[in-house]
Fold each of these.
Amino acid sequence: MLTTTDTVHTVALCSLDISAIALNALLVYAIVTRLINLHDGSQLYVFVGACSHLGRWFCHLCQTIHLFFVCHSTVVLLHSFCFRLYILRENITEVKIPTSLVTFLICVLLYGPTLLMMVFFYSAFEYTPPELMRALHFEDYPTTWYPNITDHRFVIALSFVVILSPSAMVMMFFVRRRLLGAISKMK
């Protein structure tokens, strides 16, 4: 049975998700009908702000790091919940500090896949052709694009983001429920 906090959290997430889906659908409609009609499925990124003074490569690097670290934070959070559950389930009263090698291996296992996906995603982008920028009236803005969405680097990296983050959040919900159960048994 859901607690009051779980119910409020679920309602808040559902309402935010539904409004995000509706607004994203509206944005996609506006893009498809009014702004640009790219039938080949390519993705175009337009950067506006402070990073645009440093160049396209820097803007795209910042966007790549942000995208994958947001996804990575869910993995770290899931790892944290699993470790807490492990401590409570095993009734460990004294936690031994892991060796430097074990700590290094845990960091490699947690950061390695994210770093690899960031490299894939960043290496797949190209600078937008000048004729496309003129046609879209983006000459004054730094832009990058993915002209081939079937490029394996792009597909693998985007699949990592689209699949990992939501699945980690779902797993985290179940681990959290078990963690709350273990805590309630201790009382």
Amino acid sequence: MPRARHAIHALTAVATATITAIVLAAAAGTATAAPPPGLALAGTQLTLAPDGACWGNILVGLDQTPHSGNLTVTLTPAGTWGTPGCPADVEVSTISGAGPQNRLVRVDGGPTSTTFDIGYGFAMVNVDSLAPAGWNAGYHIVMVP
């Protein structure tokens, strides 16, 4: 009997947390872009290896329009990588209810954005540098209401 009681408490806690997350996300806004609720496991920037005059990081921003199913990934240079003369090739991948998607984005001349149709619910987003070598921005777990 105690084992069943623990299982019931665990299921109740999970259900309560899920409902709370859905309600908070639904109340988050109407039609303006906003950072989605989420978790970045290894930070929110690409750390790129210096190469001559090219140095710095690329900041990763995640924005969504609530109730649209769209997630926009914006890559903003913080240093000379991603500016004219120091292009950076970045791979952005998502896994969601809409299926896996993968894009190569060239950051060359300032902030660059790409929009994914990831549907609703939870999605995993990974942002990684292909050229130059670097450390990725980690896996982002986001929820799109």
Amino acid sequence: MFTKKFVKDRAKALKIADNLSLTTVVLVGLLCFTTYHAMTNKVILEIIPPHLDEKVSMAYNSVSESYHIKYGLFTAISMGNVTPTSVMTTIEALEYSFTPGLYHRVKATLQEQGAVLKKSGSTLEFKPKTWEYEPETNKTFITGGQTLRPLNGQPTAKTVTYEFIIEVNNYVPFIKSFDLYDGVAHNQRWISENS
């Protein structure tokens, strides 16, 4: 029945065919635009993972200031609170936090530290007091009190700073540079005052 109607009214059929062709061309154009946009757009994620008290933003190759600080705090606390029995667990937990080359150096340092702690029966405790992210240098500073508690003897306390450069690649954060030193953070203000 429809065929007879289309055959009789050829002009109407051609108009419908033209509209369908135009619609197809528009849909193909929209599909190309969407595909291009999906492939070139770097999405920014806003997440609130457990143990974070505020929203953090993560893009393809960057993260927000609060993420730098939280990531630095997690790493400093993990590395700074070590007992002879927890060293291997700490090493395993930090495996994907550092670049591969830096991880092997940190692993060797923590293993040496663990051997010394085991031999003396000591524990190492770190309590962060101040933290800062410096966007100009991309450095995160975690400063706090470090206490060495020997099995028999007086605890020894000092102020130390963990300094990290945290980079993001393909939404994956990792520590590119790491330093631990006595005293306050060696930020730009400290460098200008002490040079």
